Amino acid sequence: MDELRKQIDEYDNQIMTALDKRYDVVKQVAKYKEAHGLPVLQFDRMTQLVDRLTETYGSENLSSDFIAQLYDLIMHHAIELENETIDD
Ligand SMILES: O=C(O)C(=O)C[C@]1(C(=O)O)C=C[C@@H](O)C=C1
């Protein structure tokens, strides 16, 4: 059990590290959008992203509903961060 929990901890660390890096890039995207007068919200991109992830990673473990919900949360936080970055 300890060994299994260690594996879970390690995957959780990887998820957090990847999310932290993702949001660093999101803030760079916000600066680009600000400089070029582009809107923060890009619905087409959001749809394409979830479609691609569902196609590539959809499985018994990762249902399309789960992927959609997870990325709804991840992208909504990205939108909040972008708005904060632009307001600063
Ligand atoms: O690709 C962008 O334009 C982003 O700002 C990144 C991102 C995302 O989190 O993937 C966030 C907000 C947009 O609505 C679309 C996608």
Automatic annotation (TrEMBL):
Keyword Isomerase attached: yes
Q: Where is the Chorismate mutase domain?
A: 1-86
Q: For this entry, list what GO says about its biological process.
A: chorismate metabolic process; salicylic acid biosynthetic process
An example of a Pfam family matching this protein is CM_2
Keywords on record = Isomerase
A single GO molecular-function term is: chorismate mutase activity
Q: Which PANTHER family match?
A: CHORISMATE MUTASE (PTHR38041)
Q: Provide the protein name.
A: Chorismate mutase domain-containing protein
* Organism whose genome encodes this protein: Paucilactobacillus vaccinostercus DSM 20634
